[in-house]
Write a structure and sequence with these properties.
- It is a single chain.
- The protein is α/β, with parallel strands linked by helices and 167 residues long.
- 32% of the residues lie in helices and 21% in strands.
- The protein has five helices and eight strands.
- The strands form two sheets. The chain has a six-stranded mixed sheet, with helices on one face. A two-stranded antiparallel sheet has the order 2-3.
- It is globular, with a radius of gyration of 14 Å.
- It starts with a helix and ends with a helix.
């Protein structure tokens, strides 16, 4: 799976939006986010427990070069929005937990980090490349999907988050 994701990731490094129209609004193709409960650094991480919040789910791995660029942005994003309305869940797909822990030493994460070494959650979200991010609205619907990381596209992702946070 790692080789497939790496090859796909190289081809999609510029990022592909999905499930949203030009203004970041949900399209009729929007679907419920698959439910998950995974082991995390501070106990289980369950998507259902975050219902009512906007959640950015980010799939990553220690070997993913763009993930090294995305984690500082995720940390800054986490610092900009209050936890009562917005959460980030970074789901690691490494089979070796030590590799993930070394990555997190280099790129500290003040947000929830969960571990899915079998990749079942990534499969349920239909992850094709690393990193892959999904914005989930308060009702549990995927509002936006993005593959790859490009710092120039982060403003658009943040606009979608802001719109989802606005009642």
């Amino acid at each position: 799976m790692r080789a497939l994701l790496l090859v796909a990731g190289l081809g999609l490094a510029v990022g592909l939006p999905g499930f949203v129209g030009a203004a970041g609004r949900p399209t009729p193709d929007a679907r419920p986010a698959p439910s998950f409960t995974l082991p995390g650094r501070a106990g289980p991480v369950a998507l259902d427990s975050l219902r009512g919040k906007v959640v950015l789910i980010d799939f990553w791995a220690s070997w993913c070069v763009p993930c090294r660029q995305s984690f500082p942005w995720l940390r800054a994003l986490h610092d900009r929005y209050p936890a009562r309305t917005f959460e980030i869940v970074a789901i690691n797909l490494d089979k070796d937990r030590d590799a993930a822990d070394r990555f997190l030493e280099e790129f500290p994460a003040p947000f929830a980090v969960a571990f899915d070494p079998a990749g079942k959650t990534a499969e349920s979200f239909k992850v094709k490349a690393m990193p892959s991010s999904f914005v989930v609205g308060p009702a549990g619907t995927i509002l936006y999907a993005h593959t790859g990381f490009d710092l120039r596209k982060t403003k658009g992702i943040e606009t979608i988050i802001q719109e989802a946070l606005t009642p």
